[in-house]
Design goal:
There is one protein chain. This protein is about 35% helix and about 15% strand. It is α/β, with parallel strands linked by helices and about 290 residues long. The protein has one domain: TIM Barrel (Alpha-Beta Barrel), CATH 3.20.20.70. The strands form two sheets. The protein has an eight-stranded mixed β-sheet with strand order 1-2-5-6-7-8-9-10. Strands 3-4 form a two-stranded parallel sheet. The protein starts with about 25 loop residues before the first helix and ends in a 12-residue tail after the last strand.
Length: about 290
């Protein structure tokens, strides 16, 4: 693997460029989201795949508002004063899923350290409501760390999602600079407990490259994930949302992502999706 280049690159390479989204399906998705009053992490986080996913009727639903109680330096989602959970939100999300005819959906949220359960019950209520409307749907939950609460995790497990996901995002050394307020061991513990308490539910996580991590640190983090019981991992390129966010140290070439995929599969992961534009929810249904 190539070493770390601490000089911030000046412009995106061609393999990271995406066309501006167009087409009836894309605009129909925007209309339905607006009608239902539902937010997506796709738009809030400035995901580069939004055009492709919306054009195929795919979206990662963002619940519990659009303001996070943490200020991670890699994330475009806003942070600040939050509002209480919307009691009608599960119904709104289920309405959107039904109108779009989705058969696989990802439910995620901002981090809500201000809530006693971290928002776990809102996740559970949303899953229950979606299944009432669309019984044969498959649901992935991409959850925050819930402050390490085992009770909150059990609330999630009780509604039996099809996949439990929680992203480590980066290597442990970079947590203080990139994810202040988060804790690598706490996140790893959540994944470990998810696999132990619900062995029939696949556990998933995601990493971003290009944040000053070394190849050895990436390999060590992947081994931590395997040891925790994680069987699905996504690996993508970090893209800084603005000059105020953590800078990109380098743009990782596609062939290096291919090598990381082979490395991760060799460690024991059942599924690895690795590429410059890969995000944790990208083509999740596949």
């Amino acid at each position: 693997m190539a070493g770390t280049d601490r000089t911030a690159p000046s412009s995106k390479p061609d393999w990271l460029r995406r066309k501006i989204p167009v087409g009836a399906a894309y605009h129909s998705m925007l209309t339905i989201l607006a009608d239902c009053g539902v937010h997506t992490v796709c738009r809030e986080s400035q995901c580069p795949n939004t055009g492709e996913c919306f054009s195929h009727g795919i979206a990662a639903i963002l619940i519990l508002g659009t303001l996070c109680t943490r200020s991670c330096r890699f994330c475009a989602v806003g942070h600040g004063r939050t509002v209480p959970p919307d009691p009608n939100e599960p119904d709104k999300v289920a309405d959107m899923v039904q109108r779009l005819g989705l058969r696989y959906t990802v439910i995620t949220s901002v981090t809500r350290d201000d809530l006693p359960d971290g928002g776990a019950e809102q996740f559970a209520a949303t899953v229950r409501e979606i299944r009432l409307r669309v019984p044969d749907i498959r649901i992935e939950v991409l959850i925050p760390d819930f402050g390490g609460s085992e009770e909150a995790l059990q609330t999630i497990i009780a509604v039996r999602p099809d996949v439990i996901a929680h992203n480590l995002d980066t290597v442990p050394r970079l947590y203080p600079a990139v994810k202040p307020g988060s804790d690598y061991r706490r996140s790893l513990g959540l994944l470990t407990r998810s696999a132990r308490f619900a062995p029939g539910i696949p556990v998933k996580s995601g990493l971003m490259l290009g944040m000053e991590e070394s190849p050895g640190e990436v390999e060590s983090t992947l081994r931590d994930l395997v040891s925790a019981g994680c069987r699905i991992v996504t690996i993508g390129q970090y893209l800084s949302p603005s000059r105020e966010h953590f800078p990109v140290s380098r743009f990782v070439p596609p062939e290096e992502f291919d090598r990381w995929r082979e490395t991760a599969l060799g460690m024991g992961f059942a599924s690895v999706v690795s590429g410059p534009l890969v995000r944790s929810s990208y083509r999740a249904g596949e």
